[in-house]
Amino acid sequence: MDFIRAAAFSVLASAGLSACGPADIEYGTSDPLEDVNRVSHGFNKGFDSVLLRPAATVYGTVVPEPVMRGIDNFASNASLPVTVVNNVLQANLEDAANNAARFLVNTTFGLAGFLDPAVSMDLPERDTDFGETLHVWGFAEGAYVELPVLGPSTGRDTVGTVADFLMNPVPNVLTREGRRFVTGANWASRIGTRHRFRDTIDSILYDSTDSYEQLRLNYLDSRRYALGGGDALDGDTSGWLDDPYDFDPYEE
């Protein structure tokens, strides 16, 4: 397997970039748009209550676990090309080579990604996005934003979400039917993730005294934790949870 990683690394090395110093990991909460954000939060909470949570319950009940896992694998594999682009933009050529090799293996030997033979070849996914690319380039986090349908974000990550959508090369090489299939797989995967993390998400949205503040806290802490390489801010991880909306159920 090393020869695949080495070959991918040698190709990507020719595109090496020198990134600016990364932005500092920020503290506290900047939320000048709280009034507007709370309106979006109410809409998103209603969307979850009426559509997403019931769909996740049905999906998790009727779809066998191996099928859900295959759909997750396919959706994840389809997102790898834009991940590789971000790896290169961050001058992280090792992760770019790893993800490129993973995409090659799973697309060819894993039935377009429904299976994950790459993981047994020591090629786990090394996830990133354009929001992290902007962080590496030194762009500040910006204000907290809760987007309608898209959920919690920041100014920097909102720009990153748009950029990832525009940079993704996969839609350009697929037929219309292929693009619809990928979009459907993404939705199914995210609905399945909503089912798997139902206890955490329900606790935040429906059991918290203030679900808006709780979601904001969890998103900012988990995002900063990830961008900081896993180093706890001030050595305190007591309020940190995995981001419940990291799966972004509304992304195409």
Query: Order of strands side by side in the largest beta sheet?
Result: 1-2
Beta fraction of the residues? under 5%
The helix-strand sequence is HHHHHHEEHHHHH
Radius of gyration: 19 Å
Total strands: the figure is 2
Number of domains: 1
pLDDT averaged over residues = 87
Give the class from helix and strand content and strand pairing. Answer: mainly alpha
**Main sheet makeup:** 2 strands, antiparallel
Give a verbal description of the structure.
The protein is mainly alpha-helical. It has helices at residues 2-13, 34-62, 65-78, 80-89, 93-109, 130-137, 155-167, 170-173, 176-196, 198-206, 211-227; strands at 144-147, 151-154. It has one domain (31-235). It is built from 11 helices and 2 strands; from the N terminus they run H-H-H-H-H-H-E-E-H-H-H-H-H. A two-stranded antiparallel ribbon has the order 1-2. A hairpin with a 3-residue loop joins strand 1 and strand 2. The two termini are 32 Å apart. Mean pLDDT is 87; it is low at 6-19 and 232-252.
Task: Briefly characterize the structure.
The protein has helices at 2-13, 34-62, 65-78, 80-89, 93-109, 130-137, 155-167, 170-173, 176-196, 198-206, 211-227, and strands at residues 144-147, 151-154.
